[in-house]
Amino acid sequence: MMVGYNPDDKIFHAVDCIIFGFNDEDLKVLLIQRDFEPEKGKWSLMGGFLKKVETLDDAAIRILNRLTGMQNIYMEQLYTFSEVNRDPVERTISTSYYAIINIEKHNEELIENYNAKWFSLSEVPNLIFDHNDMLDKAIKRLRRRTSISPIGFELLPEKFTMRQLQKLYETILDKELDKRNFINKINSMDILIKLKEKDMTSSTKGSFLFQFEKAKYDEKQTNSFYLKL
Amino acid sequence: MMVGYNPDDKIFHAVDCIIFGFNDEDLKVLLIQRDFEPEKGKWSLMGGFLKKVETLDDAAIRILNRLTGMQNIYMEQLYTFSEVNRDPVERTISTSYYAIINIEKHNEELIENYNAKWFSLSEVPNLIFDHNDMLDKAIKRLRRRTSISPIGFELLPEKFTMRQLQKLYETILDKELDKRNFINKINSMDILIKLKEKDMTSSTKGSFLFQFEKAKYDEKQTNSFYLKL
DNA sequence: TCAAAAGTGTTTATAATACACCCATGG
DNA sequence: CCATGGGTGTATTATAAACACTTTTGA
What Gene3D superfamilies does this protein's entry cite (chains A, B) (predicted)? Predict the structure, then answer.
């Protein structure tokens, strides 16, 4: 036996996913009602144990997929929670990931199987363990990310109007934005293609649809946006 | 046995510390040369196993203290690394933490016991496992933090000159800064007290010493500095 | 014809950057 | 008396914020 590798120190490792969704109205988070112990009947984040031969990223993807049926979703590791008694059954550390998905695109059936439900951020109930802390951290991170890089298009349909995009930003940042300033800012980023089609559902006049130019977007993603002084 | 808690999935969990130091000259990182297996003789970050009854934060503090003798150090959790074969001996996940300390203040003796050495960032050798990745991530995070909040005073003596502070920022950001703009910016933050003493070692004229007003600093720390749009 | 949402530019304020000279002192 | 690092302020530019009216068309 190698020095330091003491089998008594082996512990469980879980992954919990904060799944954000958006539906033209509200920023929501997907929670499941547990039909298993511990804390059966209570609400929690969707999670699972890390397998012996699996990375955390893979586990997060697996867990998200199991609940939503979705693939190729933007996910990001958030933080690892390690309070000794956070899980009352066995010592378990949990790494949280957050994802942002389009609420329309998930698999309804799977969600029902898991007793899952979308909650507006203002209506989130008490969650098990430290899941409320995880959610708080995820919201903060999402806001920061949104302010500094053009994340969030995952939350919109492929073609969208400027007002939808603005609404999304306003919802994430929890703050009203000026219509003209917003458009100027987005245009200056030069990541959208203006289509000739209009969406006629929201007004009599109709509003132009935009699409998202992936190549340019990816450029922006890799650059650093802050780093001033 | 509770569903999901499969003892086969239990694994080791380690903590690795990226310890930054500064000595008027250079930003450095403290590495140890391993006199134990695996990878004996190679350089690595200082690390250790998480104990069964201990949080990650506590483990990070314990590990830092063991190597430097220091306490009450600013540390921050960075990221959790989980490649399946990152540790060739046993499946081990590692959470990295970074600390910034004053190079003068550590315990020389302890450092010698661990075959530890300070390396300039440009001279860091190949490290074991994924420790170079950890270091890269830490450097990025440190730069970002430095740009947006007045971190880094931990790296200076209690009383310091403006030029020392500027040098520190220049070193961390790897970028030259304008003397006057720097002073204006720092003054606008209103977190320093100008002392009547001068430091006479660096020039014939001498330069005023400053001290750091903790209360105001803490205020700034908790505010969010970015979040634009 | 009017209600409801879309679209569009300019002005002002704030923040970041660029820039050059005099000062004090020990050797 | 001069070499060395210390100290200081203003003008310019870039970015962010504030702000109001006209257009379209289905009901």
Answer: Nucleoside Triphosphate Pyrophosphohydrolase, Winged helix-like DNA-binding domain superfamily/Winged helix DNA-binding domain
Mean predicted confidence (pLDDT) in A79-92: 97
Tokens of A118: 């979308």
Pairing of strands B92-102, B75-81: antiparallel
CA distance A52 to chain B (A): 5
- CB of A205 within 7 Å of some strand C atom: yes
Asked if domains B13-148 and B157-222 share a fold, the reply is no
Please give the protein residue whose CA is closest to the C1' of the nucleotide D27.
Answer: A204
Lowest mean pLDDT among A84-93, A99-108, B10-19: A99-108
d(CA B101, CA B141): 16
> Quick check: A50 and B11 CB within 8 A?
yes
For residues A96-121, give the mean pLDDT. 88
Contact B2 A38 (CB under 8 A): yes
Q: CATH top-level class for A7-148?
A: alpha beta
Q: What is the pLDDT of residue B213?
A: 85
Burial class (CB in 10 A: 0-12, 13-18, 19+), A98: buried
Mean pLDDT within A14-29: 90
Rounded alpha-carbon distances, angstroms, from residue B38 to B35, B42, B44, B110, B126? 9, 9, 11, 22, 15
Kindly identify which residue of chain B lies nearest to residue A79, measuring between CA atoms. Answer: B79
Query: What is the pLDDT averaged over residues B204-209?
Result: 94
Report which listed range, B25-34, B50-59, B168-177, is most confident: B50-59
Q: What are the boundaries of each domain within chain A?
A: 7-148, 154-222
Q: What are phi and psi of A74, to 5 degrees?
A: -70, 120
CB of A183 nearer than 7 A to strand C: yes
* CA distance linking residue B100 with residue A54, whole number of Å: 32
CATH annotation of A154-222 = 1.10.10.10
Give the model confidence (pLDDT) of B92-120 as tens digits. 999 999 998 888 877 888 888 889 999 99
CATH class of B157-222: mainly alpha
**Architecture field, domain B13-148:** Alpha-Beta Complex (3.90)
